[in-house]
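User: I'm putting together notes for a lab meeting next week and I want to include a structural view of one of the chains we've been expressing. I don't have a solved structure, so I'd like a prediction I can at least talk through. The sequence is below, exactly as it appears in our construct file.
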Amino acid sequence: MELYYSEISEGAILVHQQILAAAKNNPEIKSLYKGCQLLFSPLIEQPKIMLIGFNPGGGYYNWHGRIVEGFQPMEALEYYLNTHALAEQTKSLFRQAGREEDLQYHTVKTNFYYWATDNVADFKRLLKILPEELSKNIFHLARVWMKQLIEALQPEIIITEGFKAFDEVEVLFPEKIKFNKEENLRSFEVPEGMKVLGYKRNQGSIIGKQEIIGALHSTWSTAKKVGTIN
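Assistant: Thanks for the context. Below is the predicted structure for the 230-residue chain, given as structure tokens.
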């Protein structure tokens, strides 16, 4: 697991340096790019939960006045180190589902894309104005690295924080069963037994909390640890 993570981290550092180099000659890139962070939690093998967002936001930059360069795991889940809307809503959600201990101590939190911007629109804009080869590489490596990380960690359940993240993760699993698509909730299973659940978000707000709580109860009652993703 550590070897996988080390290789991913080294690759992310290289891409980060390439974005910074491009930003030297492009003020818009410099304005949009808020840094790079891989994990918002410890690195835990076979976690009960793997949280996956779309990409890091600009919170670190706005608070510290400099870009984030987070290439090592954090000492604890970030939601218990800082106070912000998504953190508080997530803790409340798992508390109501009776699973806050799993959230706090048995969760790995990351993002599908490691490169931070203030919002998704800014990230898409960043990809458009970066050199074409670099932009394509970011798109490709995000998929390769996420698949490797999931295979190495073998989580019981993946929960995507928003439908945009769900859509990205879904592509990694060509073989899906029990696909469910509702207004505020989406889910599927892979043949190896792992479940993937995604909820709707509006900025920092989680939509349809009671539906999600019900889905969590149902998901945990039948969840299995995943083997290798084909």
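A couple of points you could mention at the meeting. Residues 48 and 182 are 24 Å apart (CA to CA). The chain has nine helices and eleven strands.

User: Perfect, that's what I needed.
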